[in-house]
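Record type: monomer structure entry
Structure origin: computed from sequence
Chain ID: A
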Amino acid sequence: MSASIIARATSVLATEASAFQRLRLLPEHNPRLEISDPATAVLSGHGFRVIENKYKRGLEFASHFSEHAHFCYVLEGQYTESTGGSVSATFQAGSLRYNPPGYEHARSFSAGTHCLLLEIDREVFDRVANLTDTLQRPANIGSILCGWLAHCLYQKFLQNDPLALISIEGILLKLLAETARQANGSGPAGNVPRWLRIAHEYLDSNFQRPLTLAEVAGVAGVHRVHLAREFRRRFSITVGEFLRKKRVEQACRLVSKTNDPLAEVAVNCGFSDQSHLTATFRRQVGLPPGRFRQMMQAG
């Protein structure tokens, strides 16, 4: 269900991308417009906006509702977001936060902060939301892959080139899909039975080695068919998809932060060999691990 939902969601947004290209990519059009503080520049497309914001130290926004679904990527500084009067989290440089439309929150800035805001129009969001509910809740996006996508999007934004908008649209689609994948792999612990939480935790702790469905089912004390069915129903992702997601995320960390040989990275992340790593990594990330390493370590 997870893969088909994401594919359908991507198809919906790809339609919006096509419309955007027809309406906005005119030779004389300069998409970045200088506007007043705190927003320093805005790129508007059909169904989305990319806004570069600079917030002054001590600035506070009282509790309010977000009209649009949006990502907030912190380029410099930090901010604190709270909900219902309680501190939710502090986001520092490199952090990526996703909030759905209608989400109530307050923000405060203890330091001068530079952010990139990616807003998605309600009409576009609703079409995707009809396919999956994973984007209906806020999320702290901790994967290196999503951080890399946000970084790439900002670099394209700085080019001030209408043709770069094609790349930005594609990156935004990938970012939405990866956010949905990350949300698919986690669910409220209180909403699942204890045996399924045990299975989820066992997978989370042992994904770096070969695992069988029978082994995980044995740890949880249920039949493997029951485990497969309930895991997918509760988390909107199969056991196999969850393992691949965890392994690719770990590979992203090792590839970007170390110079370990790719064959060694493959073994340490639970892949059978380097070829298996490369094929899976390319499928999930969109480029081979060697190229990903070059881009991460260069930027």
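Annotation 1: The chain is about 50% helix and 20% strand.
Annotation 2: The CA atoms of residues 256 and 293 lie 5 Å apart.
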